[in-house]
Here is the input.
Amino acid sequence: MGSFSLLVHLLLYWIQVEAWLKLSPQEQTVLRGEEARFTCSTSNTEWTIMTWLLNGTTVITISNEIGVLPSVNPNVTAEKMPDSKIDSWVFVLKHTERHNQGRVTCDLQGITTASGNLFVQEKGSVKVFGDKLAFKGQLVLFECHAVGWFPKPTLQWQVNNKEISQTEFNISEKSSRSLFSASSSLSVMAVQSSDVDCLASVSAMPKPLNSSIRLTVVAEVVQEDDDCTVPLAVTTSLSVLLLLLLLCICAVHWYRQRRQAKPGPQEEMRAPQMGPWRFDHSWSTSSVAEGRGGNINFGFTSEGPTEEVCNEVFLETQSHTDFTSFHKVPDVVSPSTLALHPESNDECLSEKSSKNSRMITTV
Here is the structure.
């Protein structure tokens, strides 16, 4: 019975002690440089001294009558919770460092203690290298480096804000001076232009650290501009064709005008073979003058019937004349034909012959 009674008393004492003292949180994780806070509460109002220990070393002391006693560590302080039905004191560790990680203990001297754990993590850097330009269907390799983390960082890839399965990329890790670094590579098929993100994090971070680059797919850039490029290309082609057609029409028109304004050498060579029915005064004059080495006397004026009258006479004479051959020219005009216009015929024939002899001056 004595042993049983002793166990009951110990159990009641442990329950009572637990009711007297409580430490929260039991575990806390912060990033290096951030603030850590632990609360120690007790329903026992008879305590005298409360001490806080960090990894077994007393860092601050609190008196129930006086309050917080001066501390040699300026990075540590304590605050009493206001409006609390029980005594509650908050232990504040400012600007945490890696060596602060460990056991945090609240000790009511001579009564009981309560302990918790503090974890200090390190946030490093993360970087994905270079924007990428690729052709559609090309396989593009991305590399991500996370340096200076504690503990080992967690890496994650995203393409257009969609997470990539961890089976699709690899991760390699290494440590240096209690810090960790990690590298990861990801292969992406260039289907469309996308944002590629590499995220690194540890548990104390509210959100991951992100590095982002842009993957530009060349084929997609061309397709986005198709709505403007195709009509522009068609319009340009039609404009060029119309311009070429206009140039051709102008060239043909200019060539015809030039042919009409200036006879070619072949026409001048054929002119003597056309017979007396095409009497070209300018041709006969210039050809005879050139043949004899002379010059044309442009000061000569004709007397008698005009050129038009004589031509009509010759044309009318020609209509009444029969030729035996196309190349044979008769030497004598039929008297019956000349009788139709006796006066005009004589005058024109004499005038023609005289003009042919008088219009040429040989030097």
User: Anything to note?
Assistant: The mean pLDDT is 75. The first helix runs from residue 2 to 20. The domain at 125-223 is CATH 2.60.40.10 (Immunoglobulin-like). The first strand starts at residue 21 and ends at 24.
